Amino acid sequence: MNHLPIPLGRNTDLYEAASMPKSIKKLGVHWKKRLRISFLVIMMAAILAPLVLTWTGNIWIDEKKLAAVQQSNSYVKLDEMPDHVWKAFVAIEDHRFMQHPGVDPIGLSRAIWIDIKEGAYVQGGSTITMQLARNLFLTNDKTMTRKVKEIAIALQLEQRYSKKELLEMYLNVIYFGHGKYGIGEAVPFYFGKKAIETGDRAVTLGEAAMLASLPKGPERYSPVKNWDRAKQRQAVVLDRMNELDVIGQSESTLAKNEKISVVPTAKRAGK
């Protein structure tokens, strides 16, 4: 009896597929089709979600509040303050501020992961633009609804304004504790000078780092309430600026040892 030789490298997958029942073949085809459709849906959602959120942001923006920001008597322009002031805030609050579109996927993902592990809202993952959105138009309620609104408004603000304009508004609306909002109110309150002063009266690097420590906990890190805690947080800001090469090690050391005079309570009260 003659036997047909089976060639080496035989395509067994093809052979087995040919012998499969038709129902199994159809199941495989349907599975692949569903996979392709699911992939397309995910891709479309990834593209459309930011567009929808950006458009939705208009709904939650109060145009009157937005217009009133720059009309405040204590409003300080970015060019009127030393560069190390805004650099301190960017370094500690949102060092990818110049790169992201209003929402930092890396920072937000990390914050969500930490919140899930801790079982509570430990980190917000808010960018400077998101903080601006919250301070202007939203409450501080730690809910998913507020976070979605915050993201939507931030994306819309990024479409309307330059990074410089957004950073300027942020510095003029954030809360610094003791009922003071914005850098124009905070500098006189804490240090007895104006944010726009120059020369020997200009805001120093040490003072800027102390101010930049306040958004995380205005009352907790207030140099008026707790000097030691304020100095510890100031060191964190200066170390972060050094780590990001915003300042050198020598500048950081000098700023940490800088003598900072906080306005006495009696003088602040006008007594």
TrEMBL record:
It holds the Pfam family Transgly. One of its GO terms (biological process) is proteolysis. Keywords: Carboxypeptidase, Cell shape, Cell wall biogenesis/degradation, Glycosyltransferase, Hydrolase, Membrane, Multifunctional enzyme, Peptidoglycan synthesis, Protease, Transferase, Transmembrane, Transmembrane helix. It catalyses: Preferential cleavage: (Ac)2-L-Lys-D-Ala-|-D-Ala. Also transpeptidation of peptidyl-alanyl moieties that are N-acyl substituents of D-alanine; [GlcNAc-(1->4)-Mur2Ac(oyl-L-Ala-gamma-D-Glu-L-Lys-D-Ala-D-Ala)](n)-di-trans,octa-cis-undecaprenyl diphosphate + beta-D-GlcNAc-(1->4)-Mur2Ac(oyl-L-Ala-gamma-D-Glu-L-Lys-D-Ala-D-Ala)-di-trans,octa-cis-undecaprenyl diphosphate = [GlcNAc-(1->4)-Mur2Ac(oyl-L-Ala-gamma-D-Glu-L-Lys-D-Ala-D-Ala)](n+1)-di-trans,octa-cis-undecaprenyl diphosphate + di-trans,octa-cis-undecaprenyl diphosphate + H(+). Residues 67-241 form the Glycosyl transferase family domain. GO terms for molecular function: peptidoglycan glycosyltransferase activity; serine-type D-Ala-D-Ala carboxypeptidase activity. It comes from the Bacteria. The chain crosses the membrane at residues 35-55. In the C-terminal section; belongs to the transpeptidase family. This is Penicillin-binding protein. It comes from Brevibacillus fortis. The lineage of its organism: Bacteria, Bacillati, Bacillota, Bacilli, Bacillales.
